[in-house]
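S2.1 Query sequence (Dehydrogenase/reductase (SDR family) member 13b.1)
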Amino acid sequence: MYTFLLVVGLVVGIAYIYHSVVVKGKRCKSKAKLHGKTVIVTGSNTGIGKMTALDLARRGARVILACRSKQRAEAALADIKRESGSNEVVFMQLDLGSLKSVRSFAETFLKTEPRLDLLINNAGIYMPGTTEDGLGMMFGVNHIGPFLLTNLLLDRLKECGPSRVVNVSSIGHNFGTIDFNCLSTHKELGVGNSATDVFNIYTNSKLCNVLFTHELAKRLQGTNVTCYTLHPGAINSELFRDVSKVFMILMKPFLMFFFKDTVAGSQTTLHCALQEGLEPLSGCYFSNSTVRNLYPKARDSAVAKKLWEVISESLCGLVKASPCDSSSPPRAK
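Output structure tokens follow.
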């Protein structure tokens, strides 16, 4: 009996330490106030995006909720205004699965908002399918949409610097690969609809996020804009909302104990967005609010440049000679 109790106590102790240290993780320590600053958070109607937007609103920022669903975004808008006490929170519709919607969003934003200090590419999905532009759904929403949005808004970010771009990736990028033949042939990061295929495509899209940040940092050298990418942690959020409901019900107890809640999950994003002195680390990858080393494939400059120029620019219709040059409307007065 003594041995049994000792083992149980040891297991409980380890579980407690794991939950306290790994699951909860580090919190953003920045005390920065953001009055007079404007930020965009994509996918901010739920999950860690919503918690990120709420924190930024509490700090005084003007927060643009860039979301696809008007109904869900307006509900989040009401919540964030009420909990932050700020009226400087607005909803602007954005569907990252539609290049037309991305361009429309950028055009509207540039005409109506005089500043942009922080762009947080938070939105992401985990589901198969095809976008209206004929791209693989996860490739389009998780990479191409944010890629185009960032390029269209870079001039405004430069005007308002020092400013930052934060790209939410995943530790899953470690399992990803970039198959340029598949991209050229199918406009997709992989083929197949099995659970394994879908997982592989998702991790490939997350590798795209890291490579995009790597190349973007190079192109931003000499400017007052910096960029960062991150793994937010394993989050008990709605990323897997399209997975079987029965499966999610069965997994709920496991998720609640071993996965971060959305507040804890937003902390590394906030760290990258707000922490003072990160400028020398532009292009780096963070996890648990700490810089992490990347495997060679995630910092391969040749692959990152090819993904940018040969694939992403081409699919977005951006001018190759000036990839960061957006034909943006006149700045709002």
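The longest helix spans residues 195-219. The longest strand covers residues 225-231.
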